[in-house]
Amino acid sequence: MHKITQTLLDKFTIDYLRNQVLKNAYGNDDTIIAGLDPRTLLCWYLFFGLIPWFLNDFIVLLGMFVFVAITTKLAKIAPLVLFLFCLGVFCQTGYLFIAALFFGGNLSTLYSLLVMTLKVSVCSLASITVFSGLNPDRLATGLLYFGCPDQLSFSISYAFRILPILMEEFQNILLSYRLRGHSPSKKTWLGKVKYFIYQIKIIILSFYPLMLNTAKRSRTTVEALELKGYRYANENKIVRKKKMASLMFKKDDLIFVLISIVWMILCVIISILF
Questions:
Q1: What are the tens digits of pLDDT across the range 164-195?
Q2: Cβ-proximal residues to 216 (8 Å cutoff; 6+ apart), any chain
Q3: Gyration radius of the chain's alpha carbons
Q4: Tens digits of per-residue pLDDT, 108-145?
Q5: Which distant-in-sequence residues (6+ apart) come within 8 Å of 45 by Cβ?
Q6: At what angle do helices 108-132 and 14-26 cross, to 10 degrees?
Q7: Which of 31, 131, 194, 204 has the fewest CB within 10 Å, making it most exposed?
Q8: Count of other CB atoms within 10 angstroms of residue 84
């Protein structure tokens, strides 16, 4: 048992977390979802990210959840991201259910919580699916096509681009704190608790220099882009047209949209019949 626990703890290192996050953001270019047009994915996300909040039908919401779960599987999401999703959604539901029982609720309260959980799950899985299938360039181009301001589309794509740098920067700062500090012994249970508290403490302390370094790096990047004529390129119609040239609806996009429509129609029909 001790060996199993130690093995699990060894896996959850900064390198493992970084690799999982980067895999989810950049390592899914060979999936079916990543091969779809950005406009298709953004419109699909707009539907599955908004419509569930206006529905209260359990069967329809369950059908939408099953469908986005299938697309998440096709997108090859990193296991850590799925684990955090399940932990966040279902732990919150359990907490609300216990609180409802404590304040006089009954088992009928569980139905309302399940409906709310399905709404959150559909929106969350749709977000994970879409943004894991779009790299920064494709995301920015898709947003520009729909009339999104240049500054906003650049900010979103820049957040994607700077993610690997932030993870590496965070790891270096964390290692510097560990090298200069003295970690407690892990031989006893009390020592393990102290070690855990010590790790949390240095993680919190690492965020301050991380934010400072990020601000400096962002300023340097903005100045470099201005020197290279980024603002002029955004206002130039020829440059914008070349960016849009990469957008192209294909047969896979049509099939994906038709499957989504047919699935939703079937969910509505089943809900009406039952």
A1: 778 778 888 888 887 887 777 777 777 777 87
A2: none
A3: 23
A4: 777 778 888 889 889 989 988 888 888 777 888 888 88
A5: 126, 127, 129, 130
A6: 80
A7: 204
A8: 12
